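Researcher: Predict the fold of Acetyltransferase (GNAT) family protein.
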Amino acid sequence: MTSIHAITASDHDEWKALWAGYLTFYDAEIADDVTEHTFGRIVDDAELHGAIARDEQGRAIGIVHWLTHAATWSTGSYCYLEDLFVAPDVRGGGAGRALIAHVKGWAEHHGSAKVYWLTQEGNDTARRLYDSMAVHTGYTHYQIAL
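Model: Structure tokens for Acetyltransferase (GNAT) family protein follow.
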């Protein structure tokens, strides 16, 4: 059975390996200092939050990061699930579902009005999971790099 725990400083090396897998999946490169800064912010658990999934043997198999922000359409905050990654060799085993459920439970406990996230259109495997747990809103994402 998959267990989910808050990311702590002692998870650094396992987290970093999963983070690297996530970045590879999205063909992204992030400077080492940004990665280390991100990890520190997650461990601080103030503005960024994170959890790590472990299998029955205690091996780290997945990570999730999220944050909350004020919203104009609600008196509560919105919870943005920013990063979700499960090791390829265990996908389909429930870790992704458990990580999303963890964020949902956290958001409910902290008074958020909703949890939302983005993914690439062609990420079919993940989208099958997401379609079983959430509503696809039909919105298209735009951004301006600064």
